[in-house]
Write a structure and sequence with these properties.
The chain is α/β, with parallel strands linked by helices. It has 19 helices and eleven strands. It is globular. Bound molecules: 6-O-phosphono-beta-D-fructofuranose.
């Protein structure tokens, strides 16, 4: 890995991009995306590409050839390529935690492992995957029995953050492939209303709980697990239900799971070089394998692996994660956009925006560079979104006529086996109409300024052939690598999350000491007293 200090804002390309940004926005120039299309009849071909079953059209962005050339130059001037090679080679690029970042190794081909390290890692992954296969098959086939001898019908995945969002999103997205008899539920929030309401609907005899936690220490997860253990005691008289066939542990800290009482044969491990928000490909994905079957789970890994190869080998100008990453940098750092919206025109991708929120905002919400200095440029954007067409009837007003710039990623599938041609045509027609209307805008009729649509609103359109496990895997890996590209250019560590620690520490101290905590600020102390009825 190249350890030479790097400041993107000191590069020649960055400074040129500042100039180009002011030119393209100047009223004299009055460049619009629509005008750029009329000036270049090859714009669509030039700014589109396909990899596997994913097609990206990025022609509706506020970029011209000069800007694109400088963005690519910025990627070349940055440590992106060496950083990418270092990640795939297993170097400890997560410097603040001294860890490698190897989620890609969870989906690589064992035959490709060439060095002894790679071979050892690959053997370890194969073993972990074999456990996922064995247990998911047993449960799916009805061979895994609860303590009263009945097959499992309901799985509760208890986890939070990466131990929840990835599996939950994947199970929702791949509903077409779901097992008919087995329902998968996800409990994340420490809000007892979530777990208690779910438990009311379930039969303890046929319920299996997977405690999903990389650290096996997370407060919310451990409290939810405790509540379910008590439920099994109340319903089935099990003294320590965590010792029974009703519990599985998914963790990178097997010692803690053993100490908790989960039988060793029911603990599915993964390695600490898998970051929490990158863990759906590991044993944390057990609920996915139970729901869609192990073969489909493997297909999801294979799709992600194809994207890994594309990211690793394609030249920067034809590299989809690099392109998406550079466009995001253009808007964040040069056109002052504060957010990015992700709008899937596919209801089964409803959870994609919240999954991407963790992926992007926990990874790149940083203000200290890898060299330990405060950064003097914007880093990760605020990511938000909702499915279309629902969003159209909620927040699209602001996108069309508001004052803020919010670049959008539109995502859709060309074919949908769960829909019908009439619905699907209307769905896709709406998406295309929105991206076009946002770009083209419309003049106001005389005296009716409120009907003015300024247009010139940028977007990407990403099309998947269909929502198969393989294409879904490729889509998620695409965004993982996009986040990596941006983190590399911003020269920040995309793989730690120290920002969440302070709040956790304060919550613990507040819970321990209540409003007697001397360190509490006056507002929090007063609120605490009010909740306690002391005021
Ligand atoms: O607090 C943030 C975080 O560490 C995430 O990065 C992680 O996905 C989540 O908490 C859950 O952690 P664990 O899997 O260790 O319970």
């Amino acid at each position: 890995m190249n350890n030479t200090p790097f400041t993107p804002s000191n590069t020649a390309s960055w400074n040129k991009l500042i100039e180009l940004a002011s030119e393209i926005q100047s009223p004299v120039n009055s460049a619009t995306i629509t005008k750029l299309f009329t000036e270049d009849s090859h714009r669509v071909e030039k700014y589109s590409l396909k990899t596997g079953n994913l097609k990206l059209d990025f022609s509706k962005n506020l970029i011209d050839d000069a800007i694109w050339e400088q963005l690519l130059r910025l990627a070349n001037e940055s440590p992106l390529s060496s950083h990418r090679d270092a990640m795939f080679a297993g170097e400890a690029i997560n410097r603040t935690e001294d860890r490698a970042v190897l989620h890609a190794a969870l989906r690589s081909n064992p035959e490709d492992a060439s060095t002894p390290d790679e071979q050892q890692r690959s053997a370890q992954v194969e073993m972990q995957l074999a456990a996922v296969e064995r247990i998911s098959n047993d449960i799916r086939q009805g061979d895994w029995l609860g303590s009263t001898g009945k097959p499992i019908t309901d799985i509760i995945n208890i986890g939070i953050g990466g131990s929840d969002l990835g599996p939950k999103m994947a199970c929702t997205a791949l509903e077409e492939f779901a097992h008919e008899r087995i329902n998968v539920h996800f409990i994340s929030n420490v809000d007892g209303a979530q777990i208690l309401s779910l438990l009311k609907k379930l039969d303890a005899e046929t319920t299996l709980v997977s405690i999903a936690s990389k650290t096996f220490t997370t407060q919310e997860t451990m409290l939810n697990a405790k509540t379910v253990i008590q439920w099994f005691k109340d319903k089935l008289g099990l003294k320590n239900a965590q010792n029974s066939r009703h519990f599985i542990g998914l963790t990178a800290n097997p010692a803690a799971a053993v100490a908790y009482g989960i039988p060793e044969t029911q603990i599915l491990e993964f390695s600490d070089w898998v970051g929490g928000r990158y863990s759906l490909w590991s044993s944390i994905g057990l609920s996915i394998a139970i729901s869609i079957g192990f073969e489909n789970f493997k297909a999801m890994l294979a799709g992600a692996h194809e994207m890994d190869l594309h990211f690793k080998n394609a030249p920067l100008e034809k590299n989809m994660p690099v392109i998406l990453g550079l466009l995001g940098i253009w808007y964040s750092n040069f056109l002052n956009a504060q957010s990015i919206a992700v709008i899937p025109y596919c209801e089964r991708l409803l959870l994609l925006p919240s999954y991407l929120q963790q992926l992007d905002m926990e990874s790149n919400g940083k203000s200290t560079s890898l060299d330990g200095n405060p950064v003097n440029y914007n880093t990760g954007p605020i990511l938000w979104g909702q499915t279309g067409t629902n969003g159209q009837h909620a927040f699209f007003q602001l996108l069309h006529q508001g004052t803020r710039m919010a670049p959008i990623d539109f995502i859709a599938t060309i074919k949908d086996n769960l829909s019908n041609p009439e619905h699907h045509q209307v769905l896709l027609g709406n998406m295309l109409a929105q991206s076009s209307a946002l770009m083209e805008g419309q003049e106001a009729p005389e005296g009716q300024q409120h009907r003015y649509y300024p247009g010139n609103k940028p977007s990407n359109t990403l099309l998947l052939n269909e929502l198969t496990p393989k294409n879904f895997g490729a889509l998620i890996a695409l965004y993982e690598h996009k986040v990596f590209v941006q983190g590399s250019i911003w020269n920040i560590n995309s793989f730690d999350q120290w920002g969440v620690e302070l709040g956790k520490k304060m919550a613990n101290s507040l819970l321990d000491q209540g409003s007697n905590n001397e360190n509490l600020d006056p507002s929090t102390k007063a609120l605490f007293d009010y909740i306690e009825g002391k005021d």
